[in-house]
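Lab notebook page, bench 4
Experiment: in silico fold of construct C2
Operator: M.H.
Input chain length: 201 residues
Purpose: comparison with the prior construct
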Amino acid sequence: MDIYKTIKSPSEGLFKDKGSKFLAFAYPFENESEIKNIIEPLRKEHFKAVHFCYAYRIGLDKNTFRVNDDGEPSGSAGRPILNVLLSKEITNILVVVVRYWGGTLLGVPGLINAYKSATEEAIANSEIIEKTVNDVYQITFGYVQMNDIMKVVKDFDLKIRNQQFDNQCIIEVEFRQSISPQVLGRFEKIDEIEVEFLRTV
């Protein structure tokens, strides 16, 4: 499978219980280094809030995730958020739920329900889209191989991410993982070129 579901753009949800407000913010998300840049502005904007709990899931592997309860009882915030992402089968997503204290303790079952419900609301307000898992390769070749290379690009409708044409030509191409064997097989038939895998996106 090289297809996955994610959200197209950021969305929000809201759940209230006994005076507490739970604001859920969902973001398309692919890199753990982005977390601080997302949460810090939320902390500044919602400076009266008491908790900023989150969960994210990245990639097709159900084991690539993280949860954070941010001071709530263990397992009562981050895990319910993640469970919604798993049940909806969406990935490459981060959900942060901002809690405003309402003065009444909700108990662990109440918290689990609140964080889950706020997350579900944010997902319901988002547009879920399907994307493909793509591989990026760098092809290095001489000018005389140009026609052969571009024929493969055209035949498979490969996306050119970068190109540099000189005596030594370099192009970066992106294509679905599922057609990798066919594409690489065609490139292998062209003499004197170098094919290097760069990354999966």
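Observations: Residues 107-124 form the longest helix (18 residues). The chain has a mean pLDDT of 94.
Next step: discuss at group meeting.
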